[in-house]
Specification:
The protein has about 300 residues and is an alpha+beta fold. The protein has 8 helices and 15 strands. The chain folds into 2 domains: about 150 residues, Gcn5-related N-acetyltransferase (GNAT) (Aminopeptidase, 3-Layer(aba) Sandwich), CATH 3.40.630.30; about 130 residues, 3-Layer(aba) Sandwich (Aminopeptidase), CATH 3.40.630. Strands 1, 2, 3, 4, 5, 6, 9 and 15 form an 8-stranded mixed β-sheet that branches. Strands 8-10-11-12-13-7-14 form a 7-stranded mixed β-sheet, sandwiched between helices. A hairpin with a 2-residue loop joins β10 and β11. α1 crosses α2, α2 packs antiparallel against α6 and α5 crosses α6. The longest helix has 15 residues.
Length: about 300
């Protein structure tokens, strides 16, 4: 018999095992998420004959529109299904339950980031639409050496999640984007710290920006979001390369800011609106920014 319900504290050990089996994250990362950033009732589970087979966490975020209005949004995180029972429709049933759950919570839409590009079509069949594209580019370290000196006043400084969030919202003001509570920015910082990365304040040519950094396999550096005006992006990347050495630099910026040569746009997140008026309002913009997906 299949049951779908909000989780209870006694379900957490099974959730952790399923999470690690599906995503390969460390014990430290998973344990910290459950200790500080999630309560049992935020996780929806599918169990069959007492065994937990599928799960997803409902995180609360906010969608800001360019006109200054904002609406509560449910972000579906860590959607996982036991590999040996995939194809039985558990994830489909779980997301249908999530629709009801989030609407009762007052959320105006559901958002998620597919774990792989191949899953975009699957979620499209469930009523989600492409949204939150990311602008990406990769730079080799050799491309960033021998450049003209940056000059005085260029700085890269680790900062607290609250300061990062403040800068983030200042840079994204007037755009359609997802805003996060400070505790989720803190969760990103914890993930960055596990890889010897961090959250940083950027100062370039008198402009203040921010960047969230993780190291991937030690030799590659991922800027999970780089927020600074297009005119200062190249200098910002140069500054980061001088302060944080790596063989390769992977950079994500908002789709509506084209500041780095060779950048391209790639599908990233998806959305399902529950409110018809807001769907139309979103449809007229669509260049929405998600940024941090805690991926």
């Amino acid at each position: 018999m299949i049951t779908i319900r909000p989780a209870r504290a006694e379900d957490i050990p099974q959730q952790k095992e399923l999470w690690k089996r599906c995503f390969g994250d460390s014990d430290a990362y998973v344990d910290m998420f459950y200790q500080k950033y999630c309560i049992p009732e935020q996780v929806l589970i599918v169990e069959e004959d007492g065994e937990l087979n599928s799960m997803a966490t409902m995180l609360e975020t906010t969608m800001h529109f360019p006109d200054g209005t904002s609406y509560p949004v449910g972000y579906v995180y860590a959607l996982a299904t036991n590999p040996y029972i995939q194809g039985k429709g558990h994830a489909r049933q779980l997301l249908a339950y999530a629709d009801e759950y989030l609407q009762k919570k007052g959320m105006k839409c559901l958002t998620l980031v597919p774990a792989s590009p191949s899953l975009h079509r699957y979620f499209d069949n469930l009523g989600l639409k492409e949204c939150f594209a990311a602008r990406k580019v990769e730079k080799m370290s050799a491309e960033l050496t021998g450049l003209p000196p940056l000059g005085e006043g260029c700085r890269l400084v680790p900062i607290l999640p609250s300061e990062y969030n403040q800068i983030r919202e200042e840079k994204l003001q007037g755009t359609m984007h997802i805003a996060y509570p400070d505790k989720l920015i803190q969760f990103q910082q914890f993930g960055s710290h596990l890889t010897a990365g961090d959250l940083y304040r950027l100062e370039v040519n008198g402009e203040v920006g921010c960047v969230a950094i993780e190291y991937v396999q030690r030799s590659r550096l991922l800027m999970k979001e780089l927020l600074i005006s297009p005119t200062n992006m190249e200098k910002a990347v140069q500054l980061i390369s001088e302060e944080l050495p790596a063989a390769r630099y992977h950079i994500r910026t908002p789709v509506f800011w084209d500041g780095l040569q060779g950048s391209y746009i790639q599908a990233f997140g998806m959305i399902k609106w529950y409110d018809k008026e807001l769907f139309q309002k979103w449809f007229n913009h669509q260049d929405a920014y998600l940024g941090l997906a805690f991926d």
